[in-house]
Amino acid sequence: MNHNIKQLLDATDILASETNKLKFSGKVNHVYNPLIYAEKPHRNYILKYGNNKKRVLFLGMNPGPWGMAQTGIPFGEISYAKDWLGIRGNILQVEKSHPKRPVKGWNCPRSEVSGRRLWSLMEEKFKTADSFFKDHYVENYCPLVFMEESGKNLTPDKLPADERDPLIKICDNHLRTVIEIMEPEFLVGIGKYAEKNLLRVAKTIDKGVTYKISAILHPSPANPHANRGWAEAVTRQLIEQGIW
């Protein structure tokens, strides 16, 4: 097995195990860990695309309910995960799922807008997933999905400090390992929250390397700016940042 891949798989196993031990309360009614129940497709994603150093590492926040929560793939909109990325793998049932957010895996009828926007841009520019992943990789900072009692998505930054801090420590350690393995020149936050995490973690890597850290517009429909020409805006940002 490729050394890069073995390191990534080992690091992901640690991330899955350590985040699975955490306890959450307050507004958090349900927690999903796709690295556990969608371990097979996530592993296949690493096996297929994590086998070399990368020039650009894109970092998202945490899984969306109709993307990675279903497929185990970052921004894993069903059709793109299956048909463009070419990922397969058995997806297990969540032990305690929210009735409004069931995990139907590859049979999920919903399409995640963020994932569709992200991967459609990459398809338009690079044509094939192999061409994109030759120099790029997409990772999420936090692997957990948090839901309120209503089923509403709760982002990690909204957790109380006593629950957020242990999670940040685990996720920082994993992100540091991924950066050290992939040695990217550019670290790109998909949204400002991800950029903030990249800035913090990059400072802890003492290898005499100066990373070029930036952010692009998050593709979520909850972001009003993303609903007006997201692909064009992000293409412009990446060109201005010297990435494309």
Q: What would a concise description of this structure say?
A:
The chain is α/β, with parallel strands linked by helices and 244 residues long. Helix content is 44%, strand content 11%.
Describe the fold and architecture.
- The protein has 244 residues and is α/β, with parallel strands linked by helices.
- The protein has helices spanning 3-20, 34-37, 39-49, 68-71, 78-84, 113-126, 129-133, 161-182, 192-202, 230-240; strands at 30-32, 56-60, 136-140, 145-147, 153-154, 186-190, 212-216.
- It has a four-stranded parallel sheet with strand order 3-2-6-7, sandwiched between helices. A three-stranded antiparallel sheet has the order 1-4-5, with no helix packed on it.
- Helix 9 links the parallel strand 6 and strand 7 (212-216).
- The model has no long low-confidence stretch (mean pLDDT 96).
